[in-house]
Amino acid sequence: MIAAGSHEIFDDGRACGHLFKVKCIAGTNNGVAHPCRGSGTVVVKLVDLCPSGCQGTIDLSQEAFAKIADPDAGKIEVSIERHVLCFISDISSIRVLLVFLEFNV
To answer: What is the tally of structural domains in the chain?
Structure first.
């Protein structure tokens, strides 16, 4: 799943291609009262810069938004963490290490 980030998140393109864990925290005053659904969390790949006018926000694809919140909500409050996945494999001993590192943005 994909997303676009504001200038603060996109970081002049340095964050492009990075993964972010986005969690639905609450609704805004303008939408559905209790929009969060399921686990309320989704991991997205940042692929673009938000259109001008979005500040300090992440714009989720429809698929990603629907996974964490009611699409009728339109806008929600979220927490965002950088999500790093490292995969190391050693075939000779059939040992696999999978590491998830999370950084607050």
So the answer is: 1
CATH number of the domain within which 33 lies: 2.40.40.10
Q: 31-60: b or e for each residue (b if 16 or more CB lie within 10 Å)?
A: eeeebbeeebebbbebeebbeeebeebbbb
- In percent, the amount of the chain with pLDDT more than 70 equals 78
Helix, strand and coil percent figures for the chain, each rounded to 5: 20, 50, 30
pLDDT tens per residue across span 17-53: 999 999 999 888 776 788 999 888 999 999 999 887 7
Angle at 16 between CA 80 and CA 39, to 5 degrees: 30
Tokens of 48: 């673009």
Signed CA dihedral, 62, 63, 64, 70: sign only: positive
Task: Please name the residues in contact with 29: beta carbons below 8 A apart, sequence gap of 6 or more.
Answer: none
